[in-house]
Specification:
The protein is of the alpha+beta class. The chain is built from 12 helices and 15 strands. The strands form 4 sheets. The protein has a 5-stranded mixed beta barrel. The protein has a 5-stranded antiparallel beta sheet with strand order 11-12-15-13-14. It has a 3-stranded mixed beta sheet with strand order 6-9-10. Helix 4 crosses helix 6.
Amino acid sequence: MKRSHHCGELSLDHVGQTVTLAGWVASRRDHGGVRFIDLRDRYGLTQIVFDSEHEPTVHQLADRLRNEYVVTVTGEVTLRPEGSANPHIPTGAIEIRTTSLIILNEAKPLPFALDDTITTSETLRLKHRYLDLRRPRMQELLQLRSQVSHLVRQYLHANQFIEVETPILTKSTPEGARDYLVPSRVNPGEFFALPQSPQLFKQILMIGGTDRYYQLARCFRDEDLRIDRQPEFTQIDVEMSFVDQEDIMNLIEQMVRLVFKETKSIDLPTPLPRLSFEEAMGRYGTDKPDLRFDLQLQDLSQFGATCDFKVFRSAVENEGIVKALVIPGGNAFTRNRIDNLIDTAKEFGAKGLAWVKINEEGNLDSSIAKFFKAQALREALPSAQPGDLLIFVADLAATVHQVLGRLRLLLGEELQLIDRNRW
């Protein structure tokens, strides 16, 4: 039976109309002579009512319903009783008084609840991906991705770009990771490589006169999984001729502003804040810093070169650096919590993590405090205040930045320093 509307569409304008909806049973409630279900599709929820007084046969059939049954219902759109409206959903003012119910498919007991508060492991969710995708949050993400893709295409077409699909089966070329190889049936012993990026093809397009190219390119890289590494991913791939750095930055900046405005109603500043690579690495330990909180890396290399702590002096003498994070209120950290930070730093690549507490009187509290002159440390680190915790890493610059950059993000989350409303 074809549906006449979707589950997020009905409103007061439809009261009195007979409609047909189809979807999944999101929840059910039994009040004796009246049964309710929330019917869900990717557009939203609608409350369905089965009344034993008016439709006893349909009411009896509804007793079989369980969560995630797939059903089609037909009935009249009516106002909800006074005081029972739900202002949190678009269809909260109405309900459907059912005259017909068809069970299209039953469902076995679910391995996890399909709501956005689940704490189920990712492994179990991926095993039952078809169920996980029914969750409202997953549907929102799919719709957001589709909307972003559409906006990007519109924007680039308006700026005279041509979308070109480049080959997926190609030859191996030097890139940043290993290639995924596909054996050739036609040429035994030979292999295709899946592209890590469309680099060669877009350069050919530029030479061939296609001065503005883009595609939403699928890329494949055979490398170890990390939080920012995936074996396959999609990138917005753009190439332009006869332009300079400023042209590229302005183009992408306006595209990002458009996407945020249309998808989140957020007006980003113009121009967007800009950092050099050196400044980003030096202040935040990463080339993609989270600027929503101000916990910055502090350079103490000069202090380390003159203090009596051998670890710091040795690092500087061997062309390394010493940097620190000042953790506000960190004097309250227990020794166990500090030990966990040390273990985490080692996991991130550090040989160790030095630390010093500044107590409420301004004195230094640490097993390494005897190597420091308190006044010299205060002068080198004027942002440190009584009650703070200082953590140090001394090593080559790449290691220091990687470790402290990741610890900075971890502490930003743990200490709730991140302003979620800042973009």
